[in-house]
User: Fold these one by one.
Assistant:
Number 1:
Amino acid sequence: MVNTAMTTHDCIFQERKATIDSPYHFVDSGLPNVYLTGIRYRVCSTCREQSADIPEVKQLMSVIAQAVVENESPLTGPEIRFLRKRLGKKSSEFARIIGVSLEQVSRWENGRNPPEASADKLIRIYYCHLSGNRELRERIDKHIESWLASLPGENQLPCIRAKIKRDVWTASPCAA
């Protein structure tokens, strides 16, 4: 029973198939922009309530997370919350691991203060390494290796020269 505009009715559902032209809006993902195709769903002709039978939900959520992590756009608040929840982390634990305050995570997730680019990358790397998705972890490892190879000095560490004078150490970088 659904109460719509003070009128009670028994829902009468019409079955539909989600297609490219008419996808199913998967709001239960926690993200506002996820649409499914290839599934069957039902819509009440009176109140427009929808329901769907979604197979392999765990796998679906995993591929959605992979799409979020691989998207080059900055992470949105709902995406950060989605990734954190997929890892099964409380906000406080997530904040501690990322190295920010609980309040900062709340601001990110509520869209009041997007993360800096460095925090965005750290969240993605953290998700990739802890998600259990081997393919995603291998991709991010290659991405990190590529980034390290692009650093100056053809992937060689700069020389550090340390010296002691009157029992006091000093150190400075030097040419390799």
Note: Strands lie at 2-4, 7-9, 13-17, 24-25, 35-36, 40-44, 50-52, 159-165, 168-174.
Number 2:
Amino acid sequence: MRHSLLRGALACLLLTPVLGGCVLPPSGAASPPTVEVIPADARALVYGRSAREVLEDPQLRDKVRALFGADWGPPTPGGAGKLTLAAPQYFELGGPLRMVRIGAANYIAITGCAPQACAGRRGLLLIREGGEELMARLDDGGFSHHHAYGPGVVGGPGGAGVVLESTLRALERASGGTAFPRPAP
């Protein structure tokens, strides 16, 4: 009898937070970082003058492919990728290369979109000075996919979304409403 009372009390203690709706915030939840758009200079062009050149730069090529993983190539039925297009297609219509400061670090910011669906298939790539850390956001028809590569990426792997969202807002403020290129009519 005593054991069943102990088990009942233990079960009650364990189930009370679940049944009562006790929710704890995730440990290490990322808060939005301070992002500042800074004047672009020669550092913005160190890997190329366009999104295409940057994606193919010999210093970055392998890192960019590792960043996007299975999403780098075209989607295949039953494949591992999550996107409707290959990652490079989200940068085919590239915007200007810009510089942003996130905290104390400077990044090259590259935006682009898929010409056939610019409003719904957009990309943002951030490359930290030195090229060892990369983050990307690919918007795919209403869904955002976040990618992070490198040691010590701002916000860690789970925080890339917060950093990328803050960067998009800063780029939009600096460019009068949209951070992405607009296709010609």
Note: The beta strands are 35-38, 93-94, 98-102, 105-113, 121-128, 134-140, 143-149.
Number 3:
Amino acid sequence: MMLRVSDLKQFIYCPRIVYYNYVMPVEKKTTYKMEHGKVAEEEIVKLEKRRKLKPYGLSEGKRIFDCWLTARKIGLTGRLDMLIIKDEDYFPVDFKFTEKSPGKNHLYQLCGYCIVLDEVYKCSADTAFIYLIPSNDVKIYHLDDTIKYRCQEIITEIRDMISHERMPDPTPFRGRCAECEYQNYCRDVW
């Protein structure tokens, strides 16, 4: 079963989001943050094409925007906002429209992209970036084999949940539920 890299982020944030996408597909409501994020991302792509790579700690490299990647062996696919290639090194960059520090869920999404890059390009992608749009700040992450292994365990957990059609518990962080596009379907929370 092919999963999306973004499923890792969603599963860590609240596993029910992934459940609603695969097991019980329902109509979701588009939030203001989602719409505004898309517009802001388009503007950043225009700017990034002209900028230097210094914020990423690189002196040179090739940028590829909206890079679709599919790793068939591990069954993971996704659209990476930007891929930087320098010699034999591959660096995923994810644009985020948030003023908060990236969370654990964002880290696992980045890790998913690194795992996909490892398979597709036969490399060891272990450095990844999150570009925070509102602050024009770049966060650097070094991902080792331990987190990559945990990421693969999460992929297995997701597939198990889907194949057994088991509704997971909601996130224990109820503040996340207030802006969730699936809040109408979690009657045990509300």
Note: The two ends are 32 Å apart (CA to CA).
